[in-house]
Amino acid sequence: MRIGYGWDSHEFKPGIPLRIGGIEIPHPRGLSGHSDGDVLLHAVTDALLGAVAAGDIGAYFPPSDPKWKGADSVIFVREALHQVHRAGYTIANLDSTLILAEPRIGPYSRKIQEHVAELLDIAPSAVGVKAKTPEGMGTDNAAIAQVVVLLVRNEGRELAELEALEQELEGVGTGGILKRGRN
Ligand SMILES: [Zn+2]
C-alpha cells in the first residue's frame, strides 16, 4: 500500500470560469493561475504522483510553459494515473477537502465526486469531497484543496490492460470549454 498527499491553492479573479474537480460552477469569479486553475484536480494529481514518489505536477507541466496556459487539468490527472499504473498500483480510495469562502460547494459536491471517480475509474463511494470555509485564515480570495489517496498493489491487472483503460478514459470529457491536449 502507498499513501499520497496533495495540496494546492489558487486566487480568485473576476470574469473567468470557475472549475473545481472538472465541473464548472456558476460564479462571477474563477481561479486564475496554472492551466484552468482547477485547484482540486491539481491536488489530486500531486497526491497520485506523491504516492508513487514520481515528482510533482510542476515537473511534468511547468507553469512557466505557455503550452499549459488554460489547459484542461484532466490532462494532468491522466498523466498522474498513468504513473500510478506504471508503478504497479491502483487507487483504493481518495479523500479531499476544499477550503473556500464562496461559492457554496454543497450543491455541486455530488457532481464533483462522480466526475472525479469517473476520471480515476473508481466508484464514487471511494471519493470523498468535503468543503469548509476558511474561518480566521484570511484566505477569502483563494481556494485551497487538500487530497489524500490510498493506493493498493495492482494484483492481476497487467500494465497493458490498465493502459487500454487509460485510453478509454481519454473519452471522459469535462464540458469542453477549454482546449485539450494542445501541443
Ligand atoms: Zn494548481
Task: Kindly describe this structure.
This protein is an alpha+beta fold. It has helices at residues 39-51, 57-60, 74-86, 106-120, 159-169, and strands at 2-14, 18-20, 23-25, 29-31, 89-99, 127-132, 142-153. The chain has five helices and seven strands. Strand 5 (89-99), helix 4 and strand 6 form a beta-alpha-beta unit. Helix 1 packs parallel to helix 3 (74-86) and helix 3 packs antiparallel against helix 5. The longest helix is centred in the middle third of the chain and has 15 residues, at 106-120. Zinc ion binds next to strand 1 and helix 1.
Strand-helix topology:
Layout: E1 2-14, E2 18-20, E3 23-25, E4 29-31, H1 39-51, H2 57-60, H3 74-86, E5 89-99, H4 106-120, E6 127-132, E7 142-153, H5 159-169
Parallel strand pairs: 5-6
Antiparallel strand pairs: 1-4, 1-7, 2-3, 5-7
The structure holds zinc ion.
- Say how many strands there are: 7
The N- to C-terminal Cα distance equals 35 Å
Question: Which word captures the global form?
Answer: globular
- Helix-and-strand structural type: alpha+beta
Rg estimate, integer Å: 16 Å
Structure ligands: zinc ion
Give me the side-by-side strand order of the main sheet.
Answer: 4-1-7-5-6
What count of helical segments does DSSP give?
5
Beta-strand content bin: 25-35%
Please describe the biggest sheet, giving its number of strands, its sense, and whether it closes into a barrel. 5 strands, mixed
Average pLDDT for all residues: 91
Q: What string, H for helix and E for strand, traces the elements in order? A: EEEEHHHEHEEH
In the predicted model, the low-confidence regions spanning at least 5 consecutive residues are: 174-183
> How much helicity do the residues have?
25-40%
